[in-house]
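DM from R.C. (forwarded with permission)

"hey, sorry to bug you on a friday — could you get me a structure for this? deadline for the figure draft is monday and I only need the backbone to look sensible"
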Amino acid sequence: MRFKVSLRIIGVLLMLFSVAMLPPLVIGLLADDHSADAFAIAFITNMLAGLALWFPTRGIQTDLRIRDGFLVTALFWIVLGVFGAVPFIVATALDLTIVEAIFESISGLTTTGATVIVGLDHLPKSILLYRQLLQWLGGIGIIVLAVAILPMLGVGGMQLYRAESAGPAKDRKLTPRITGTAKALFSIYLGLTSACGLAYWLAGMSAFDAICHAFSTVAIGGFSTHDASMGYFDSSAILFICTVFMVISAVNFGLHFLAFQRRSLSVYRQDAETSFFSVVLALATLITCCTLILTNTLPSYSESLIHGLFQTVSIATTTGFATQNFAGWPNFLPFLLLMLSFMGGCAGSTGGGIKAMRLLLIFNQGMRELKQLLHPNAIIPLKLDSRRVPPSVVSAVWSFFAVYMFCFVTIMLLLLATGLDFASAFSAVAASLNNLGPGLGVVAQNYALVGDVGKVILCIAMLLGRLEVFTLLVLFTPAFWRP
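My reply, with the result:
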């Protein structure tokens, strides 16, 4: 284990992260909203802390090993989550405890979108912009930038890419060099953000709201600048634009790269995971809209269709935007939508959850076992996209699913022990572990009523979800620390 190399990288990342304080600092100075001091203090704190870690180890030149990659990735989210809370702690416009501030910061960086802040409409624009920036950077921006610059620092970035990337096909690179892969992914991410922001602005959002919501839409984060979330704008056009970009952002970014490179949309149609994801999303939307219409939950058919489509996509992709209090819909629907968040987005997207690829493999494996029961002597290979899936991949997927469920049950029991009712505890864990945000019961609107112990537990759940469980849990195994 090369601790000095890891500290050097974290130091560099902290110094880079301090730059995220500058845009809200400028907004605070221009608006004179008394928040500039908080971001100035946060900028200095992050820069000095990063410098303190980097300076003593600046001369070390070596490649990362797989263990170093896991350690750096885990420390990256934990350290930045803690230091990202500084503006929330210092800002006079907020009245957050240290635990609440860290919760808000980690929720932003992990693109969960769970919040403890009430009264967003009255907050300074600088703080609102910072919350959105946290999600945008957490979605994909920071890790791609880090991987892109690490080779220039004399540190190989492939281990970081593997530790951060999601899904069973995560070792596949888009370009021969990892730096090229990082730049390609970031270009797509930036392009989608720009297109989304422009579309929002043309649909009637202010420039500030368009930029902020583009950040959280493409990051599949769910933070908003208004308490009413997307419902604030009362616009079908905005909801449609948001729905389109949520779906695009929930698809593997590697496919976006290939589609752009080949100038063809056929790559989406030929991809089994995207097809599976689309079918599940379409069926869930149909069920939701029909249920809303049949139960007369909303005043008109058009509202049932619009809000049914939007909320289904928002929850299924783990974005967490809201136009309606879906927790108040007929009992069947809130739990259906919450169950969809376990699928989340596709592998290689900014979505949370187990990922559509893993569920597709589990489903196909189940179908294969049924066929094997009928034909016990037959050799039935498991295939995906006309290619045979190695047994090691299937084993890894089942192991991930088992550990994921074990973590879910354990964390839920811990939350129940803090005094939360079952519906609130169940949905809070689902929303945190799947990086969704809104839940049911006392966490339907925000997490302000959850106690400090509960918030700490949910912070761990958010980190577990963002790091795909194993990346964080592997640090607690004795074998990881052996020479």
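R.C.: lifesaver. Residues 145-162, 164-171 have pLDDT under 50 and may be disordered.
me: no worries. The longest helix spans residues 391-417.
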